[in-house]
Amino acid sequence: MFRVKAVADLLDVSRSTVYRAIEAGELDVVKFGTGRGAFRIPGKALNVWLKSCAERGYADFVEGSQSPEAADDEPAEVA
Predict the structure, then answer these.
(1) How much is the pTM?
(2) Helix (H) or strand (E) run with residue 7 in it
(3) Does the pLDDT of residue 61 top 60, yes or no?
(4) How far, in Å, are 19, 49, 56, 72 from residue 6 at the CA level?
């Protein structure tokens, strides 16, 4: 089980990116407690999300016409 901050640090992305994936239903979490509670991300859920991200990257950069270098230079989307 991983905390949101640990996942963000591990992947070198912002916590907002991780929370957006959770809100979009792309990344499964376990919630403990009531109210705000505490979120934990199971390792298996993280692997599923990473595989999905890899498949999108393959479709965009290998099969598609996007440039990885150009995408890396673009500012991150803000939700």
Answers:
(1) 0.73
(2) helix 4-11
(3) yes
(4) 12, 15, 23, 22
